[in-house]
Design goal:
40% helix; single chain; mainly alpha; 7 helices; 3-stranded mixed sheet
Length: 247
């Protein structure tokens, strides 16, 4: 599927991959915004690695690989991205009440809100948070039986006041106050193919999965302090068999 799209991309000047379309790998769909996602994941990984001693071989290897991949993704900038980012920051500055600002990226934005995340290294990650679709088939049952309408009886005086207060409140959003959010420019199919070729980790969706797992792994490695000496020292010659040139 993906190879077919690449061939079609060569026919037209600018071909974009359709988000949510099949990639040819089971369970893996075309990512909606792989570039901004990878920039965020790599930046957070480098930030978390700062808490691990520089002498750690784990930090040295992951840091070198992450910086290399980050430079590849940064070099592939979508057409008009710089202008879009400038306009996005301006919109966020003019509507602070409608944006959530997180300096660590640990708090999820409210449903349906616009989210502006500021991360390490002076980099800005701007995106719109779409409310997740809810499927009633998978909602957890609260244990109460559905008796139909009118089974709860009349409302009490306090409850009626709360309802009247909620219904009679002034609307906080309207046609004149709604923020006009411009979607982020996306990479072309050729740019994505170039990134995949330079990284050499499969499809860019697979690269995103690896980056997500690496970010989680940093926390695990830091929790177990893998850079510290073992409490029980290995016996002399225990690992000799696995060294190069030992056979």
């Amino acid at each position: 599927m993906r190879q077919t799209l690449r061939l079609l991309a060569a026919v037209k000047p600018a071909r974009y991959l359709q988000p949510g379309a099949a990639t040819g790998l089971a369970g893996l769909l075309t990512h909606q915004s792989p570039r901004s996602t990878l920039l965020y994941l790599y930046t957070r990984t480098l930030e978390k690695l700062q808490d691990i001693p520089e002498s750690s071989l784990y930090r040295q290897s992951v840091e070198a690989l992450t910086k290399h991949r980050l430079s590849i993704v940064e070099a592939a900038e979508p057409p008009g991205h710089a202008e879009w980012a400038s306009r996005a920051r301006k919109i966020a500055a003019e509507n602070p009440a409608r944006f959530r600002v997180s300096t660590q990226g640990t708090k999820a934005p409210a449903e349906g809100s616009l989210a502006l995340q500021v991360q390490s290294g002076g980099k800005w990650f701007v995106h719109k948070s779409e409310p997740p679709e809810k499927d009633e088939r998978y909602l957890e049952w609260d244990g109460e039986r559905d008796e139909g309408p009118g089974s709860e009886g009349l409302r009490g005086e306090e409850e009626r006041k709360d309802v009247e207060k909620w219904v009679g409140r002034e609307p906080t959003d309207g046609p004149d106050t709604k923020v006009q959010w411009e979607p982020e420019p996306q990479l072309t199919a050729d740019q994505i193919e170039e990134i995949e070729g330079k990284i050499g980790g499969g499809l860019i969706e697979e690269v995103v999965r690896v980056a997500e797992n690496e970010l989680r792994l940093v926390d695990i490695m830091q929790e177990h302090k893998v850079w510290e000496e073992l409490e029980e020292k290995p016996a002399e010659g225990q690992w000799t068999y696995f060294e190069r040139g030992s056979q």
